[in-house]
Design goal:
homotrimer; about 160 residues; mainly alpha; Four Helix Bundle (Hemerythrin (Met), subunit A); 6 helices; membrane (chains A, B, C); Microsomal glutathione S-transferase 1 (chains A, B, C); MAPEG-like_dom_sf (chains A, B, C); transmembrane helix (chains A, B, C)
């Protein structure tokens, strides 16, 4: 058992993998934060999607009026979905990239730029900033993921 | 080759990793089940999103009336999206957590509570149960994921 | 350091894991492509979700008319969401499957059929093909994922 454990921890003791683990958790937590922001806007704007969520505001017609969409709630939800669409590929491709033996400095560059771009994307979406603020931050994160994908395919190619 | 294989299977022979693999597959299968439930409600309620899906009900106006949203279909779809938003972070953070060398008993506690909470969340959404049933089950899964994230960051921190 | 690196690259040097990495990156890139297709349709159809995205078309009422949904944009978005719902389980269950020691030929069969089914699904959604084209391609990918899940649970079962 202890020998096995030692081997397992070698993975997490590798510096590239540690960096990957740190940045992957940071962007996943950032994505999870979107749930709390959505919930907070739903409560502040009184705009809910499920009848049972409005029960505390009264019964019948009185509660029904809170079953509605709100532009700010929908904006946060679009930001959340965009996170799913972009952070899932980063997590998956990044994991394989971290196992493909990149230089530590190159790997850190990829992880840092991606995390920065996605945090910038969230601010650009929620403030909101005028375009091309949001578009650029999205494109930077996208390009970083493509660059990691190229390295994985070059290293592991086996069709 | 056989030496390599031996090393690979050491990962899956580790008990924490086995437990992670078991619970990760269970919650991913649970999430996949939402697709079947959506399809079943779409057929029973005759509520489709794509014109080509309604072709078997006739042509023209006759088929067009089945291109509509249905409250029960939308409810299942919201449950599915909520799964994506919460099971993806569990899968990613949980994988890194399983590699960060937790105690087996602590890891099992995290995995079991998360899986239980998400199964409860699905029942709370689909029945539906009055609040705060769904909210609580969501929060428990969320808290378990945060707890695993804390352990990963404490073990692997490398910015 | 170099000893550690050697151990890490053993993972990516394993042929089953290489095949997994190759196909996982291919389907994740295919999913990422949906973002570009959505953006291209939004621009061609002038159908946007955010007011700041329409600013370049003028101000006030003139820009507001481009804040609308378009059937083709919504179709691509449904295809993208369907990818998330199906490629996420493939990535997660497939990773654990690749670590569960399958035969190389069996693993390749799973990965190839899944990738082919999802590429077929995208064509079926975007052209669109008459049913059951899209339904069948979806079901094939779903069945492959279930088959891998069964192997993982059989190998790693630890509740």
């Amino acid at each position: 058992r202890s020998g096995e454990m030692a081997k397992l921890t070698q993975l997490i003791d590798n510096e590239v993998f540690q960096a990957y683990a740190t940045y992957a958790v940071i962007v996943l937590l950032k994505m999870m934060l979107m749930s709390l922001i959505t919930a907070s806007f739903r409560i502040r704007r009184k705009a809910f999607a499920n009848p049972e969520d409005t029960a505390s505001f009264g019964k019948g017609e009185n509660a029904k009026k809170y079953l509605r969409t709100d532009p700010d709630v929908e904006r946060v939800r679009r930001g959340h979905l965009n996170d799913l669409e972009n952070i899932v590929p980063f997590f998956g491709i990044g994991l394989l990239y971290a196992l493909s033996g990149p230089e530590l400095s190159t790997a850190l560059l990829h992880f840092r730029i991606f995390a920065g771009a996605r945090i910038a994307h969230t601010f650009a979406y929620l403030i909101p900033l005028p375009q091309p603020g949001r578009g650029l931050s999205w494109a930077v994160g996208y390009a970083v993921t493509i660059s990691m994908a190229y390295k994985v395919l070059k290293t592991a190619w086996y069709l």
